[in-house]
Amino acid sequence: MDKPIVYVTRTLPEEQLSPLKEAADIEMWEKEDEPCPRDVLLEKAKTADGLLTMLSDRIDEELLKEALHLKVVANLAVGYDNIDVEAANKHRVICCNTPDVLTESTADLTFALLMAAARRIIEASDWIKQGRWTGWGPYFLAGADIHHKTIGIVGMGSIGRAVARRAKGFSMNVLYHNRRQNSEAEEELGAVWVSFDELLEQSDFVVCLTPLTKETKHMFNRSAFKKMKHTAFFINVSRGQVVDEGDLYDALVEKEIAGAGLDVFAEEPISKKHPLANLPQVTALPHIGSASKETREAMMRLCAENIALVLGEKQPKTEI
Ligand code: DGY
């Protein structure tokens, strides 16, 4: 009997896909750092039993209605706003993501970005690289303190809690806003639930970790930035479309807020001409939240395991 076919939308190391080796014939898009073109994905999906996708691949009705053999989509990300889960349910396609394995690495990056933005670390490093360091002055590259300040986490899931644990190590006061209160964060970390407006008004660092949904799209808009302190920083490690980027740009230029650390953008990748990336008070990163080698490989293995489980008619480990 023919083995099921799994299409992987990037070149991944074969050893990380070993859970799938026996279970399926694996085909991969031949590039590691370039997305699989839409027309190739649509064509491959027509014959695939499983897809291992990246967050840049759109899995929607157009693809699903022609994917007559498809049983499982495993997305190499915890966020899955690229997948129309309702349409997948309708077509009886099981969708999986990669929670938990990336929690600590993403929290590390979130805190690193917060620190880089507050203490102007990238800008300071550039002073040396550009040969501009000619002396010392009392306000030379002076940034903002982090310790003992208030961090406000919007989206207190497992990554939010891991960020809050790091914040506690810096003696920070932790506020959070979620639709539901998170008793673990409250009991373990003394985090305090506040309304969205209270969080904006009281936080020195507003950290966005909320998933992108219809409800959260553009939740950080002009009216939200106006409520923040003039000395506050906005840090986004969730999805770019949670922010109205034009409004963020205006808030920064008009000094309604002090700065921003951005790992994500509305349309990725951005070019060096992107207005936000050109502001000195913005630290911009190319969506590297979970990008450590160990974590990315754990994510690959989890995707492969989930696909193998579904193809073997078993329950996957992390179904969406
Ligand atoms: C995710 O997994 O959703 C992250 O954005 C990847 O870095």
Automatic annotation (TrEMBL):
Alphabetical list of PANTHER family matching this protein: 2-HYDROXYACID DEHYDROGENASE-RELATED, GLYOXYLATE_HYDROXYPYRUVATE REDUCTASE B
Family as reported in the entry's similarity comment: Belongs to the D-isomer specific 2-hydroxyacid dehydrogenase family.
Matching SUPFAM superfamilies: Formate/glycerate dehydrogenase catalytic domain-like, NAD(P)-binding Rossmann-fold domains
Stretches assigned to the D-isomer specific 2-hydroxyacid dehydrogenase catalytic domain: 6-319
Keyword Plastid carried by entry: no
Pfam families in UniProt: 2-Hacid_dh, 2-Hacid_dh_C
UniProt KW keywords: Oxidoreductase
The name this protein goes by in its record: D-glycerate dehydrogenase
